[in-house]
Amino acid sequence: MTISHFIERIQLKKESKLPKLIRIKQLSAETGVAKGTIQYYVKEGLIPRPIKTSANMGYYNQEHISAIRLVKELQSKRFLPLSVIKKMITNEKGRMSVDEIRTLVEIDGRLFKNMKEVLPAKNLTAKQLSVKTGISQEDIKDLEDFSLLTPVRKGKRTYYDGDDIRFLECITKLREVGLTDELGFDMKILRVHRDMVENLVAEEAKYVLDRLIAKEDTNSIIRMVEEAVPILNTIMGLIHKRLINDIFVDLSKTLKESDS
Fold it and tell me: How far, rounded to the nearest angstrom, does the alpha carbon of residue 12 sit from its chain's CA centroid?
């Protein structure tokens, strides 16, 4: 926990005129959330369980108030469904603190906005994107279904941003070097790369959560992630190149041994 977070928690305790432990009726009045909804939040793991003093007696404290307010904020300001909020709040090690979740929310939408390789590009429709890259609209739709393209919908129209455009330009280059649909290199193959990278990113996220969240301020985390990603991409490219070379070396040795 950073010093600012520690001070904020102290201030919240000083400002609160509520007793240290309160019943669900008081919790409902303080947060504006119905008792039934609070009980549902507890059941779904969205807020901590009440502090039990006996089998039928449960109390709540400032942590529960903060957690409920955060859930409401994520719903009303971020338009997140409870299923997504639940995934944010819980991880393999248990519940995340309110401070940790707030840090994640503050990071959302701010990553990679100032990176040098992010070039400004006009958003294009699927038809415009197809004309620009030579990729059929059917293939573009498939890539969207595979979550390899992430268009933005405005009204009844769908637009693709700079990253989507560059992604399709890379596919065009792969076709130019000979990796064509006719040889079996269709859009479905890219799902393998996406699945592998998704697993890698999930592991990387664990490192970030364990080592940075609630230990560094939001701006520091954004800076470190943005500066680390290009370096890691280079490292991954070198590993990829080395492993491909090793596979062909091993295949060559196997073929020579089988011929001898």
Answer: 29
pLDDT band with cut points at 50, 70 and 90 for residue 82: confident
**pLDDT reading at 207 higher than 90:** no
Rounded CA-CA distance 217/181 in Å is 47
Decide: 107 and 100 in contact? Cβ < 8 Å. Answer: no
Torsion of CA 215, 218, 219, 223, to 10 degrees: 70
Q: Which of 42, 36, 43 is closest to 67 using CA atoms? A: 42
DSSP E strands in 16-161: the ranges are 51-54, 57-59, 90-91, 94-95, 152-154, 157-159
Q: Distance between CA 222 and CA 90 in Å, rounded?
A: 22
> Which tokens belong to 124?
């294009």
- Residue 57 pLDDT: 87
Which long-range contacts link 172-181 to residues 24+ away (Cβ below 8 Å)? 172/133, 172/134, 172/135, 175/134
Query: Which residues of the chain form beta strands (DSSP E)?
Result: 51-54, 57-59, 90-91, 94-95, 152-154, 157-159
User: 123 vs 145, 159, 160, 165, 172, CA distance in Å?
Assistant: 19, 6, 5, 9, 19
Q: Looking up tokens 């693709």, which residue turns up?
A: 160
Taking the C-alpha atoms of residue 65 and residue 12, their distance in angstroms, rounded to an integer, is 11
How far apart, in whole angstroms, are the C-alpha atoms of residue 100 and residue 117?
29
Percent of the chain having pLDDT more than 70? Answer: 85
The predicted model scores a pTM of 0.60
- pLDDT reading at 171 higher than 50: yes
Tokens 């000979």 correspond to what residue? 178
Judging by DSSP bridges, how do beta strands 90-91 and 94-95 pair with one another? Answer: antiparallel
Q: Is 24 left (phi over 0), alpha (psi -120 to 50) or beta?
A: alpha
